[in-house]
Amino acid sequence: MMFARWRTYRRLRRAAEIGDTTAEGDIAKATGVVRVLDDSLRGPHTGRLCVGWRIRMLVGGGETASRGTFEGSELVRFAIEREDGSRIVIVSSDAQFDLPSTGAFNDPPRWAEYCESRGISATHPADEVAIEPGSMVSIVGIVAVDAEPCPPQAELGYRQEGARALQLTGDYDHPVLIGRRR
Hints:
Elements: H1 2-14, E1 27-36, E2 41-42, E3 49-50, E4 52-59, E5 68-75, E6 78-81, E7 87-92, E8 95-98, H2 108-118, E9 126-131, E10 136-145, E11 166-170, E12 176-180
Parallel strand pairs: 7-11, 8-12
Antiparallel strand pairs: 1-6, 1-10, 2-3, 4-5, 4-9, 6-7, 10-11, 10-12
């Protein structure tokens, strides 16, 4: 697990910031404040409002069971508001996190329901990482240009291009990388 986190950290540091010359399909980084777009989530262990979370816990270890690691995550569409006021939309089904643990607050009914739905015991210690609205993060992903860009504020003249609506995307094979501001 530590090796994966170090690799994520290194890729976050090395990625170039997304800009006007960034082409579709490039790997780029967006740094800014997390903003909720359509939906939000609640962390299963802490119950905190967030746009994405990852839970990791050791399971098993009884007299007849071997120990293993259980990991689960969920991520919804959200935006990063950059210092210049522009927004980059984040759309991914999978992510790798380089963020500190959210904390020890526990929401017992939510946690018990989550564990029961996955067939694991709620008594094992868990580590939750959540991406909370208003937090400052850096995200690396694959650049995509939105198929339906935002309408221009004023009518464009001949051969003028509208503002590009940029997204950072990811999937199981190429997850977005989410870490502290770099």
